[in-house]
Design brief:
By secondary structure, the chain is of the alpha/beta class. It has six helices and five strands; from the N terminus they run βαβαβαβαβαα. The protein has one domain: 3-Layer(aba) Sandwich (Rossmann fold). One of its GO terms (molecular function) is DNA binding.
């Protein structure tokens, strides 16, 4: 593990979440929040203030659903900052999306449904240079249950909309 504290940049458009994360991280002696931003545009402006490619953060905790450019759109741009390790933190967690995030250059992915210990461990591992992605479950995907045809949400899901 790196000996210096991990400097975190949080980018999420939900103020309650970013404030809660900052409180969680404040209780960790090896983590320091350097800033909290609420949009893709604010992130690009923040990065634009960095001198050259020297960014005053080690790990970027990035939501995918942001105003302005979204997280997935930002990932290729973030590769211009090789010392900034990107950990995507999102409610959307389909295997296809996680593959896209990895292919676009993220160093890790944590679902927002994860517990605090998993998030903290993932941040530390990404800071240490590891890639952190959920493993695909072994074996075939679970079979869909038979659902009544009168249920609107279930019918839409069965039809492939996923909602």
């Amino acid at each position: 593990m790196p000996s210096s504290p991990c400097r975190l940049l949080i980018v999420d458009d939900h103020l309650m979440l970013t404030q809660s994360l900052a409180l969680l991280f404040a209780g960790q002696p090896d983590l320091v929040v350097v800033d909290q931003l609420a949009s893709g545009t604010a992130l690009l402006e923040w990065l634009g203030k960095a001198v050259g490619a020297a960014v005053p953060a080690d790990v970027l905790l990035l939501d995918l659903h942001l105003p302005g450019p979204d997280g997935l759109t930002l990932l290729p741009t973030l590769q211009q900052y090789p010392q900034l390790r990107v950990l995507v933190f999102s409610t959307a967690a389909s295997p296809e999306l996680i593959e896209r995030v990895a292919a676009a250059g993220a160093h890790g992915f944590v679902a927002k449904s994860a517990d605090a210990e998993h998030l903290l461990e993932s941040i530390r591992r990404v800071h240490a240079g590891q890639r952190v992605f959920p493993r695909a479950p072994a074996g075939p995907p679970p079979r869909a249950a038979k659902l009544p045809s009168h249920c609107c949400a279930c019918t839409a899901f069965r039809a492939g909309s996923g909602k």
